[in-house]
């Protein structure tokens, strides 16, 4: 037997702390009471034991120091500091008690707490036994009442019905603490216990999602901790696309109310420049096609069409951004729009309800609308109360046409690009040295000359053909058949004879031509059926459907006519007497006689 040995006798486990002649100082490792002196003969029935057996019996795992976190290590050393002065006096009960008392007064802690730490350390002889224990959040450590409270919170409180805590508590008592006659039992948790458990286990993320839904959480409550735009737009060439319905009602040239126009825009994520826009009555892929064409257009010439003079440096974008960032709108996910990738453009679809990832275009809409609305009050502009009961009908104020409003939008964009101060832009040393002014156009013009600028030059015709919808055409002897119409182009004789399928781009607004896409090259085919020239696809399909309906309507009459024809032929054939012996001689003479017999002078009865 040696000092610090563990001994076991049945369910008892002790640790030897001191040995003096026939007396031994021991501590009960199970009860963890203060050390006592016993006669050595009292330990004759004990045998050796290991730390692993002690840990298993007490269900107390002593971890390595490296496995503890910072809070656990701090608690461990703080507690050891409390018991360290008394460790040299373990064998002297009087001095030990005196040191524990003085330590308790010095640290303003109870003597019993110090004794419990001391016994814990002596039982395991390991400083890590003093580390604080983290309670595991599992069912084994929950009482039945706590399980019932958790059940009630999940069933009645964390739901989209948004019940109050008191309602959830009442429903818990009804379901879990009433007898078969719905009479409340004598023992049940109080509301304060219910509320305490709720506050202790409450997680804000679970609270928002369960009561308001994931969409609301993503839009209104999710932590906004990303670096945002600068994380994926370190230089110009990342365009952000989006659409919004303008807060104004417009009329047509005849003075009739039309409604609210749709503004679609592309904003450079790095500089904030508006690369292009389109103002239209229809959204979707149609507006995107107009937007992409406006991005590569000469902006000075575009503004000149509206009688608006502009310096080229204020809006010098005539190339496509190499990366287009969009949301999960159906028009952006369409195969038609993704064809733009053939030009080398990368399309990134952001997840739903992540407006901060395309904050530049969201900010653009806010600034543009706020800019014109304050000057157009009483002219069809919508105020925040337009959906409230009894609010003014702003449709009656409409007095501007689309042309008038587009001029205003252009002026607002020119201001946004060239005169609005871009606040909090992350200026670099090179930008400061170049004295770049804090305007989007100046940042854009400077960025075009820097390494990393990623813009793609593309022609208008190539862009239009790329954005056209596509379908599968079939070659045959009758030409290239597309949308149930036939087309022709010189030099494709072999394809007509061999047959096969091909990818074809077509213009839904004019079916006169289609373009065969082959190895990235567009070959123009012209329609064979001239009656369809100049018509749009909808009109052609209407004609084709009408023709099929007419033919379908006459099919029954056609069947009846075939039946009648068969009946007449059979009647005539049945009345003829068949001859079993027909002579085959002198056929030419017979033919001449019959010709003379049936000859008719057609001019004899003609009028002069």
Automatic annotation (TrEMBL):
**SUPFAM superfamilies linked:** Ribonuclease H-like (SSF53098)
Per the database entry, which stretches of residues form a coiled coil? Answer: none
Taking every annotated instance into account, which residue ranges of this chain make up the domain Integrase catalytic?
230-437
Q: Which InterPro entries does this chain map to? A: Integrase_cat-core, RNaseH-like_sf, RNaseH_sf
Q: Name one GO molecular function term.
A: nucleic acid binding
Q: Which GO terms describe its biological process?
A: DNA integration
Q: Gene3D superfamilies recorded for this chain?
A: Ribonuclease H-like superfamily/Ribonuclease H (3.30.420.10)
Spell out where the chain crosses the membrane: none
Protein's UniProt name: COG2801: Transposase and inactivated derivatives
Q: Native species of this protein?
A: Sporomusa ovata
Q: What is the lineage of its organism?
A: Bacteria, Bacillati, Bacillota, Negativicutes, Selenomonadales
């Amino acid at each position: 037997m040696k000092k610090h040995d563990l001994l076991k006798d049945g369910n008892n486990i002790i640790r030897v702390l001191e040995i003096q002649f026939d007396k031994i100082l021991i501590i009960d490792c199970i009860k963890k009471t203060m050390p006592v002196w016993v006669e050595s003969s009292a330990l004759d029935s004990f045998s050796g034991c290991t730390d692993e057996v002690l840990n298993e019996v007490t269900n107390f795992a002593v971890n390595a120091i490296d496995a503890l976190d910072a809070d656990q290590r701090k608690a461990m050393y703080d507690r050891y500091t409390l018991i360290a002065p008394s460790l040299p006096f373990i064998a002297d009960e009087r001095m030990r008690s005196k040191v524990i008392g003085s330590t308790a007064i010095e640290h303003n802690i109870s003597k019993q707490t110090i004794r419990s730490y001391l016994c814990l350390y002596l039982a395991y002889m390991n400083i890590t036994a003093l580390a604080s224990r983290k309670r595991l959040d599992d069912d084994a450590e929950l009482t039945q009442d706590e399980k019932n409270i958790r059940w009630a919170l999940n069933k009645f409180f964390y739901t989209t019905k948004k019940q109050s805590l008191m309602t959830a508590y009442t429903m818990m008592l009804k379901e879990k603490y009433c007898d078969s006659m719905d009479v409340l039992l004598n023992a049940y948790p109080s509301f304060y216990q219910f509320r305490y458990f709720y506050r202790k286990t409450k997680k804000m993320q679970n609270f928002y999602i369960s009561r308001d839904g994931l969409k609301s959480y993503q839009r209104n409550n999710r932590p906004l901790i990303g670096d945002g735009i600068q994380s994926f737009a370190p230089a110009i060439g990342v365009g952000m696309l989006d659409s919004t319905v303008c807060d104004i009602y417009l009329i047509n040239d005849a003075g009739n109310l039309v409604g609210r126009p749709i503004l679609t825009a592309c904003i450079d994520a790095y500089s904030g420049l508006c690369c292009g826009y389109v103002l239209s009555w229809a959204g979707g892929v149609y507006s995107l096609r107009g937007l992409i064409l406006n991005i590569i257009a000469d902006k000075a010439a575009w503004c000149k069409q509206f009688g608006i003079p502009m310096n080229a440096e204020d809006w010098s974008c005539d190339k496509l951004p190499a990366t287009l960032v969009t949301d999960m709108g159906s028009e952006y996910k369409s195969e038609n729009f993704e064809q733009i990738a053939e030009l080398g453009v990368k399309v990134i679809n952001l997840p739903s309800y992540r407006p901060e990832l395309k904050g530049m275009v969201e900010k653009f809409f806010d600034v543009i609308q706020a800019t014109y609305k304050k000057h157009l009050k009483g002219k069809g502009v919508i105020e925040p109360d337009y959906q409230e009961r009894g609010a003014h009908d702003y449709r009656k104020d409409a007095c501007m046409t689309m042309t008038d409003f587009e001029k205003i939008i252009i002026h607002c964009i020119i201001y946004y690009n060239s005169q609005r101060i871009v606040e909090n832009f992350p200026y670099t040393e090179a930008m400061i040295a170049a004295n770049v002014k804090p305007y989007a156009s100046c940042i854009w013009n400077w960025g075009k000359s820097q390494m990393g600028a990623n813009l793609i030059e593309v022609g208008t015709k190539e862009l239009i053909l790329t954005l056209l919808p596509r379908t599968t055409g079939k070659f045959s002897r009758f030409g290239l058949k597309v949308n149930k119409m036939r087309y022709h182009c010189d030099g494709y004789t072999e394809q007509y004879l061999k047959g096969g399928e091909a990818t074809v781009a077509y213009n839904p607004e004019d079916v006169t031509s289609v373009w065969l896409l082959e190895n990235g090259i567009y070959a123009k085919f012209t329609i064979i059926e001239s009656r369809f020239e100049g018509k749009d696809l909808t009109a052609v399909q209407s004609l084709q459907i009408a023709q099929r309906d007419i033919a379908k309507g006459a099919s029954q009459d056609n069947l009846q006519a075939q039946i009648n024809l068969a009946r007449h032929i059979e009647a005539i054939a049945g009345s003829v007497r068949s001859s079993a012996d027909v002579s085959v001689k002198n056929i030419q003479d017979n033919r001449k006689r019959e010709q003379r017999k049936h000859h008719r002078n057609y001019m004899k009865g003609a009028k002069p």
